[in-house]
Design goal:
The chain contains five helices and three strands. The chain has 214 residues and is mainly α. The chain is rod-shaped. One of its GO terms (biological process) is translation.
Length: 214
């Protein structure tokens, strides 16, 4: 006989509760999700997850233990051959419970219990994904830094070119002043020489006129 437990029980006896859980687990494994009361879902969840854990091991002893709990051989075969491999990478949490609105009539609280059949992502894959994302982000930041540095370098180059151009212009202006200055001095000297020659000519002419008068 099943060992009775303390507190409320599904059905009127321990045997009745055992049959209720076996039927609920069979329906859950067969359809993937069922809707039942909160009390039944609360008791069914650990019961079904223990059966899935035994099915994952796949030993003959575990198969016999599951067959003793669930009399439907087709469901047991489906559990071991189809469902158990899908939970291979999941260490636990094979089922989930979702609260629903109360049942019409007796206003009983209802829940939906379903199998978590989504593929799990290993920790190594998660770390690899995060590392790849970090490398991509670093590459983008480096590219952005290079793009920001390019205009600054262009501005510095333009400033240097402008400074060099100004220095070249200043040097050219100094050279031009140095060259022009001697030319102006020579011009002044030439003018003085011309004036001197004119004065000498006038003196000579005056002397010639004076001699003529004598």
């Amino acid at each position: 006989m099943p060992t009775p437990k303390k507190g409320p029980r599904l059905g009127g006896s321990a045997g009745h509760q055992k049959h209720i859980l076996a039927n609920l687990a069979s329906q859950l494994f067969e359809h993937g999700a069922i809707t039942t009361t909160d009390a039944k879902a609360k008791v069914l969840r650990p019961y079904a997850e223990k059966l899935i854990t035994k099915a994952k091991s796949g030993t003959v002893n575990d198969r016999r233990a599951v067959a003793a709990e669930i009399p439907n051989k087709d469901v047991v075969t489906y559990l071991f051959n189809e469902l158990a491999p899908r939970f291979e990478n999941r260490p636990g949490g094979y089922t989930r419970t979702i609260k629903l609105e109360n049942r019409k009539g007796d206003n009983a609280p209802m829940s939906q219990i379903s199998l978590v059949l989504e593929e799990t992502v290993s920790a190594e894959a998660t770390r690899a994904t995060r590392a790849a994302a970090s490398r991509e982000k670093a590459a983008q930041e480096a590219a952005a830094g290079q793009d920001a540095a390019a205009p600054a370098e262009a501005e510095v180059t333009e400033v240097n070119e402008a400074t060099e151009a100004a220095a070249t212009a200043a040097a050219e202006s100094e050279n031009t002043t140095t060259v022009v200055a001697p030319e102006s001095e020579e011009t002044v000297v030439n003018i003085n020489e011309v004036e001197t020659q004119a004065d000498v000519t006038e003196v000579v002419e005056e002397e010639a006129e004076a001699e003529g008068d004598k």
